[in-house]
Amino acid sequence: MTASNPGPSGTGTGPGPGRPRDPRTDDAILDAVRELLREQGYNRLSIEGVARRAGVSRPTVYRRWPTKAHLVHEAVYPAQDVHFTAPDDDSAESAAGRDFTDDIERFVEAALVSFQRPETASAVPGLLADYRDQPELREALNTRLDAVRAAFRDLVDAAVARGQARADLDADLLYDTLSAVVLYSTLSSSRRVGPGFARSVAELVVQGAGRPAAD
Amino acid sequence: MTASNPGPSGTGTGPGPGRPRDPRTDDAILDAVRELLREQGYNRLSIEGVARRAGVSRPTVYRRWPTKAHLVHEAVYPAQDVHFTAPDDDSAESAAGRDFTDDIERFVEAALVSFQRPETASAVPGLLADYRDQPELREALNTRLDAVRAAFRDLVDAAVARGQARADLDADLLYDTLSAVVLYSTLSSSRRVGPGFARSVAELVVQGAGRPAAD
Fold first, then answer.
1. Complex ipTM > 0.95
2. Are the CB atoms for B210 and A205 separated by under 8 Å?
3. Are the beta carbons of A183 and B128 closer than 8 angstroms?
4. Which structural domains are found in chain A, ordered by start?
5. Are the beta carbons of A198 and A112 closer than 8 angstroms?
6. Comparison of pLDDT for A140 and B183, the residue scoring more
7. What distance in Å separates residue B148's CA from the closest CA in chain A?
8. Residue A129 to residue B132, Cβ atoms within 8 A
9. Which stretches make up the HTH tetR-type domain (chains A, B) (predicted)?
10. What is the pLDDT of residue A67?
11. Are A180 and B180 in contact (CB < 8 Å)?
12. Which residues of B touch A179 (CB under 8 A)?
């Protein structure tokens, strides 16, 4: 996704075949997608409109992203946006002070912030409809987010090591459950998502709905 | 949903002045909606097309359902479809044999079956997009499903009474969490939703992800 070519962008043609890509062109295109999602929504967004807004040609866009869904996915789910994990402090002291429920709360909060951006909220139903029509698309696009899932697994592993999570916990099922809750709350008009929502979800999934064994 | 039901949503104009509605007309219209959802999907479905397929006039449809979303919601989420609860056997013997995790599993299974119908799977992304544009719509439509939510609360209350669920459990949060998981798994291409999925979800939310207190 990087290139050192300082060549002009925004002048209409973009780099030709075999020439390194200009990251500023990528940024201009992704910015244009986010603007248009906020202004028009997913259904009315077109590659042509994105190219015009970004000041590039349609082929310049298609060379980078084969479909509108690929383009929108990258614009609204930046894969580098993995800020839910605690700072990389693995000292025993720091680890001892960590709490699994806090970790889960932080993950849910970060995901809520991400999904509540206007361009993301605008894109999600349209992307879901595209997934419906092209089942392979979701799998392909979600590989972009494998790093997020991997970071979540690390978080679970660390909690197991601290004795705070079940050793037999299915981290992927928990990840999907939390992702589902965040997606659902974003899609709903959701009076429920106020302060404390992430905490409530974290407590529910960590403590469980069943009667505590210690009772 | 009986013949004397005055209207699907309670918010429409209801039957024409002085003329009782024929439930067979309702059924024909709702059947036509489900057929067209399977054949064409949500976006291409029109009130005009539904009327034609059902052999009625457009005003006949509009008299009953003010928008396409109202019509589709009733066609794919039948409010009487609340089969997740155990038989109404409140004898002490029967109650003693009930298990909260089983109850949750049954709820998730029933919801999965409902969401995996082709017409429902076809309608959901379109409905979500409409909710996005008209936030009041989701609230209005979901009142149709209040009976399902109420039945779920009863299920939780019964589990609390049996000592199997936390007394402080937020039944609505659990309901929303499970609904989210089902919706999400239906929207995804979801290699995960095989046999045992409902059981895994039920165990996760009942036992919790945290280390058992008895450990």
1. no
2. no
3. no
4. 23-76 (1.10.10.60), 92-207 (1.10.357)
5. yes
6. B183
7. 17
8. no
9. 23-83
10. 92
11. yes
12. 184
